[in-house]
Specification:
Immunoglobulin-like; 4 helices
């Protein structure tokens, strides 16, 4: 009996020590059973992003390009350039083109200056003219109406077309819906809609460099709303054709858009023709020709 007592005491003592050690090292029931985190989790006080990151994105060469200038508003930047839509006159009808210029807050002033400056040589060769003389300026813009100081028209017969140029050019801006010329009521685009040709091509514009497939878009008021397009190379050979339907036609104006693919071994001048096919004899009518540069295809 005494021998059993001597051997049981050390065993009991060892069990007690193991239990004490296990109790001290065991995790609390309220804690996680997984591994400890390697970094502290973010707290609610950490700043959050409200827009695109201001960090410059890597350029194709692997270096970082400088971030664009900020406007001071979180998540926005000020563009370096501004693309304007200018409306000139061709054969007595309105025709749009574009200019890209350094950005400015005086957009209406810039648009009128560019409109008065007239077409580029390529646009002039295609028949575009401006009827707006120098000196036109916007005196105020309020409640969507731009009030204009306009010099007397050199030719009274062209006064209405000149006003239409101004109205269509200024109403591209969201702050302008109508233009007041100091008489009668302010006028909007609908007041000069009769000066639009049957087919208007808003893109591409004269002088653009295009790649395949080229997207041709604009508005049209043609029979059964059917608009046809063809591409010609420098020699006048037909490269491709396509057709689409505008959103409205035969007495109403609708929007159209069509992509035309082509194959070309080398870059060269070309022409985009947009037209209506005559229901009477199948000829091309209401044709609009847009001289462009056709990029080579691979």
């Amino acid at each position: 009996m005494s021998r059993r007592r001597r051997t049981s005491r050390p065993a009991a003592t060892g069990v007690a020590i193991v239990l004490l050690l296990a109790t001290g090292c065991a995790p609390s029931r309220a804690g996680t059973l997984g591994p400890a985190p390697t970094a502290p989790a973010p707290t609610s006080a950490a700043p959050t992003s409200v827009g695109p990151s201001a960090t410059a994105a890597p350029s194709p060469g692997g270096t970082h390009a400088p971030a664009p200038p900020s406007t001071g508003v979180a998540g926005t930047t000020r563009p370096a350039t501004l693309t304007l839509e200018l409306w000139y006159v061709r054969d007595g009808r309105l025709t749009p083109t574009r200019r890209t210029r350094p950005a400015t807050v005086a957009t209406s002033r810039l648009a009128l200056t560019e409109l008065a400056a007239g077409p580029t040589p390529a646009e002039a060769a295609a028949g575009l003219v401006t009827l707006l003389p120098d000196g036109a300026e916007v005196s105020r813009i309020a409640d969507g109406v731009a009030t204009l100081r306009l010099p007397d028209a050199p030719d009274p017969a062209t006064a209405r077309a000149r006003e239409a140029q101004v109205v269509y050019t200024l109403t591209q801006f969201p702050t302008v819906r109508r233009v007041a010329f100091g008489r009668d009521a302010p006028a909007g685009r609908a007041d000069y809609a009769d000066l639009l040709p049957a087919i208007v091509v808003t893109g591409p514009v004269i002088g653009d460099r295009v790649t395949s497939p080229v997207t041709v878009l604009g508005t049209a008021d043609v029979f059964e709303a059917t608009v046809s397009v063809r591409l010609l190379d420098a020699a006048g050979r037909q490269l491709a054709t396509a057709f689409t339907t505008a959103t409205c036609g035969t007495g109403c104006r609708g929007a159209y858009r069509v992509a035309v693919g082509y194959r070309l071994a080398r870059q060269q001048p070309g022409t985009i023709e947009v037209y209506e096919v005559s229901a009477a004899d199948g000829s091309r009518t209401n044709l609009v020709a847009v001289p462009v540069t056709l990029a080579a295809t691979r």
